[in-house]
Every structure is written in structure tokens, then in C-alpha cells.
Amino acid sequence: MQLIPFIDIDVHDIDANPAKGEGAHQHFDFRFVFYLVPEQHPRLALQDEEVSGASWLEFADVRSSTLRAKLLDAREQGLDGRPEPVNASALIHDGHGRYLLHLRDKREGIWAPGTFALLGGGRTRDDVSLEATLRRELAEETPGLEVDHLAPYALEEATSIDGLAVPIQVFQARWSGNPETVDLQEGVLLRWFAPDMLGRLNLSPGLGDLIRRHAAEHPPASSPPPPIRLLQGEAPQGTELHIVGVHLYLEDSHGRILLGLRHPDSAYAGNTWHFLAGHCEREEAVSCLIREAEEEAGLVIEPDDVELVHLVHLVDSPSARPRIGLIFRARTWSGTPTVREPDRCVEWRFWNPKDLPDAVVPYTRQAIEGVLAGRLYSQRGWDRR
Fold it and tell me: Terminus-to-terminus CA distance in the chain, angstroms?
């Protein structure tokens, strides 16, 4: 039996009772809602001095108008008799009918060990929402895998390692990257799978039905792109794949630079000012920059109006995949910077480069200094390896 928050505190006056040595006082009754898992009624042990009887009732059988009103009010407040989910998973698809699955480690203490499952995890005290939980888990488990939009899709139930039924909020998201470029920190591997492959996999319970349902509701617009073959055997030993990011260096007529304040729940640099930026998919860098500028801020930039003004080669930690940050200046553009993706950026503002805010992404500040000094290259983080 699982307990969810009480719905009512009843306060009433109690007369003095000399036999009990009690004076007149107020009595507080805390009324709770219980949800039965499984749905069978447990035996009740009553305190005879407090109550003379108890019974389980369906809502339709509740005769007290006062209690019915309070139960209805509880429903309107979201207390529907179901535990609130504290776990979140990501149903990531590429729009071409493929789904991203994660093979879990096969060892004790792992939830559903040795099975293919969705990425995700449990909420912590510092997570302000389940979406924040999922973005934190993705950042911890799969650095380099960044999705723009997470939308609630389904509420699923799983059995935890201690045998309890746990509700899980499943979010859907699109991503078209190559799993082999993701720096996987937990589990064995990360791969794309089409629904017709699911019968050959050892899946976590219920996952196959969930994916097939989603696939039926979201039929692919086209066939998946051919697999990207990584250099194996042809590249020199020790070759490291890099993540390539594009960044927009945009100055207004007063020489001020456009920066965006990232959402507080962002998996990367929350509450921090940063260039308008994005990661290259299967596209060349200038096209990526133009696409990101329109998607994130509603700006229209022509390819011929773009020039490369700086490059930052950086690594965040010894285990992180190295990154190459390309900083492009747009000489002209059209449109006014507008927040188009509020889950990623909450404000656009032009800043005097000599009076930047304190909370600026470190390599962004470094790149701005490099551009102003006429330097084409800088590096960051390599001394911490």
C-alpha cells in the first residue's frame, strides 16, 4: 500500500472530560488518501478507544455529502489515487522509424540488468521537475546527446529492484545523431533499432509495446538514412572523434554582442549567458549556423554574409569527448532576436564586450576576447586532462 499526501485536516472542539483528566481543547484529525497496490483490501487493526469500526468504500458508496465534496476537491487538485511519478525516461526517435535503446550493465543492483531500455533515471531533491531529472540523467549518462524538446508521452509502470511498482513518466524527443559518437558513461552500448527488430532483443518489460504504439501513432515520413560508418582500421591509432559546435558572433550597430541566457533547467550551463549555438548534425557548419539562428531566435542569415572569426578547441574533463567550437560572425542579418525555444533560452540581449555579465560560459568569454584581439584560435581544458 502506497501513501500519497493527506487531503484534509479537520479541526473540532472537544469538551472537558474530568474522567480522563482532560480540559477543553481542540482535536485535529488528519485524513489521508491510500492507494492499494495490488488492489486488495488489507486487514485493519483498529484502536477501540478511538473508533468503533472501519470499512473500504468505492467513491459511489460514500454517503456523506461533506466527505464526497472533499474527495471531489482532492481529485481536482490532482490527487487521483495514483502515486506521482519520480522517475523519467526518454523515448528518443529519429523521425525515420528508429528508436534509441540503451543496453544496461548486467550486474547486481542494476534495474533490469542486461536488458535494452530507455535512457533515464530517478528524480533527486535538486531536480525542479521530471524534465529536469531527465535532462540531468542524459547529461550524466550520455554527454554529447542533446535534445531540444522533451514532451510528455506516456505514464508507464515498472517494477523496481526492491519489488515495488514504480510509475515512470516517459518523454518523447527527436534526435538524428550517431550513437557511436556519444560518450556513454553508463551501460554497455547505445544503438538505433527499428520496431521490427524488437522481437530479437531482450527488452525491459513493456518497452516493446510502448515503442510499437508510438510507431503506429508517428509513422516515419521517410526511410532512415544510411548508417554512418566510423573510420575503423583506416584512421591512425588513437584517433579521437570530436563534437563540432557552431556559434553565432553577432554585433549590433553599437558594437554590442548578442548572448542568450540559458534556461535554469538546461543540462548545460543553466542560468548562464552563451552564444547562440548548436551542434552539427549531418550537415556542413554554415548551414547548421543558419538553421540554428532561425530555430532559436528567428534570425535570417545568408551564407555569403558569414565569416569564420575564431575556433576554440576544448575538453571539459579527462573522460569527456573533445569539442571544436566554430565561431562565425554574421556581417548582416534580418529579424529581431526572439525567444523561439524557451526550454533552452529565456532571453536574448546585446552586451558591451567590455562589460559582460559575470555568468558567461567560460569558453564563450574566451572566444569573444579572441575575436576582439584578432586571434583565430584558442584552446581550453587540455591542461586538466
Answer: 50
